[in-house]
Amino acid sequence: MPEDPAVQKINTRCCITGGGPAGMVLAYLLARAGVEVLVLEKHADFLRDFRGDTIHPSTLEVMHELGLLDEFLKLPHDELRDIGVQINDVHATIADFTHLPTHCKFIALMPQWDFLNFLADHAKRYPEFNLRMRAEVTDLILEGDRVIGVRAKTQFGPLEVRAELIIGADGRHSIVREKAGLQVQDFGSPIDVLWMRISRKPTDPVQTLGHVDSGRVLVQIQRNEYWQCAFVIPKGGFDAICARGLPAFREEIARLSPYLRECVDELKTWDDIKLLTVVVDRLKRWHRPGLLCIGDSAHAMSPIGGVGINLAIQDAVAAGNILAPAFQRGAVPGIVPVMDALTSELSTEGGTLPAAIAMGLTLAPAGLPSRQIASPFLRGPVDQNGGTPERNVGGSAFAENDRTASAPELEYSTVTEDDLAVVQRRREFPTRMMQRLQVLIQNRVISAVLASKKQFALPWPIKLLARFPILRRIPAYVVGMGFRPEHVQTDDATAEPPEETA
Ligand SMILES: Cc1cc2nc3c(=O)[nH]c(=O)nc-3n(C[C@H](O)[C@H](O)[C@H](O)COP(=O)(O)OP(=O)(O)OC[C@H]3O[C@@H](n4cnc5c(N)ncnc54)[C@H](O)[C@@H]3O)c2cc1C
């Protein structure tokens, strides 16, 4: 089929679909390790409310390992050091983060867009990092069984990106996993959650609290000037709540948490209340040749424990640790990303070029030295000038002025499906454990509370936690760190080598 000249074409080493926590952290880590990466994010900015604003101690530890922690903590944030629950009139602290083996012994509460903007700003110092906002991925490009690229809609028209590896980090409604035909296991959920924001008075308590009463659960996350409130309802129950009317809903909130009564009138319309349809699912296989899913796109989490962001970031760290060395098996140091130049200058007509592009080669834009062109699908020994003889020939083989030079040996990628399977093996266990725990709490505890018409008795685990403070470290560890905390194992490719001592 003839090439459509209206379609922009970009080649890169790794294309990440979705600029959420999973996508942005992985992009940062790959770019830092010297791997050219392009993030496609469908929105124009990171500004979205109620996406979860929790930055867990394990993520703060990752920031420390990256040397970003001090600067990060200068951003406005709140610090959550423990979590309490109020059942009927009994109050108990159930998680205590102050003993965690981390630099930060708290959960930082910060708008997610501040976190993502922070990452994007710091990633920009790496020339291998590229981010395209308003680029919505709509389809995959396949060659046989292998995913070799994505199609996207952008404000400038259609875009095709070909890459050695596509990462699906596009959240729980992932188009990537759908188009890849990856099989989803749905674990069901008996609950949905209504999110809202209610002002916080100086006289209000300081602890993040879960209020549990017969038939109702309200979680209040303490922010500086407001409470981020999650009202748990039976699945599909939102219409019935709307039918009872907003005044009745406000009254329910005020009865559960009387000090909110003064401010609950701020909920003026149902638009002030966001419905989160809770889904708990997991892909059987997180990958297929040329594609890996991470974060919510591989496993949508229940809001219980507020661990979705943490797991997404931990996936990204593990993927970075495993994939950066896999990319480096064939990397050429010193390659300059040329995506923007290519976007505007790439020409597809004539000669062997369409075939070359189909194989993943980039065309040297006029005037750009051919050795600066990333030809990511080539392999060969690296010479001292930061290129391979074959690769430099390869770059010039498809440069404007020299299309006739012989084609180099081509390979799709240095990242194999085994590498992708290693990422899944590493992250499946902690995900599975966390989801089991969430499903257990949803089905056994929350469902029972929502169904009960009389006062709910204090469950024995809560009694134990209330009685023995040392036990509160266990839920704090599970929520704050997860079942398999990840650490950054890759180097900063731009860091100065240590000086040799005589
Ligand atoms: C209302 C609500 C409240 C939550 N509260 C918490 C909480 O307090 N704590 C917590 O840990 N977790 C919370 N979560 C869950 C948490 O938001 C997710 O688990 C986490 O954000 C997953 O990160 P991710 O990067 O995998 O996916 P996402 O954060 O969903 O990011 C996916 C990104 O991909 C983009 N995208 C989607 N489709 C495309 C496409 N076709 N092309 C290009 N880009 C695309 C999206 O715009 C988005 O930026 C909450 C979720 C919701 C919905």
CA-CA gap between termini: 63 Å
Name of the level-1 CATH class of the largest domain: Alpha Beta
The average pLDDT value, as a whole number, equals: 81
Give the helix/strand class: alpha+beta
Which stretches are low in confidence, meaning pLDDT under 50 for 5 or more residues running? 331-410
- What Rg do the Cα atoms give? 25 Å
* Total strands: 20
How many helices in DSSP terms? 14
Shape: globular
Task: Say what the CATH topology of the largest domain is.
Answer: FAD/NAD(P)-binding domain
The proportion of residues in beta strands is 15-25%
Ligands bound, unique: flavin-adenine dinucleotide
Give the CATH superfamily of the largest domain: FAD/NAD(P)-binding domain
Largest sheet: 8 strands, mixed
Number of domains: 3
Bin the helical content: 25-40%
CATH architecture identity of the largest domain: 3-Layer(bba) Sandwich
Structural features, described:
This protein is an alpha+beta fold and 502 residues long. The chain folds into three domains: 8-188 and 278-329 and 417-480, FAD/NAD(P)-binding domain (3-Layer(bba) Sandwich), CATH 3.50.50; 191-234 and 236-276; 339-397, no CATH class. It has 14 helices and 20 strands. The strands form four sheets. Strands 1, 2, 8, 9, 10, 11, 19 and 20 form an eight-stranded mixed beta sheet that branches. The protein has a seven-stranded mixed beta sheet with strand order 6-5-14-15-16-13-17, sandwiched between helices. A hairpin with a 2-residue loop joins strand 19 and strand 20 (291-293). The termini are far apart. Flavin-adenine dinucleotide is lined by residues 17-23, 40-43, 50-52, 54, 136-137, 169-171, 175, 195, 274, 276, 295-297, 301, 303, 306-310, 312.
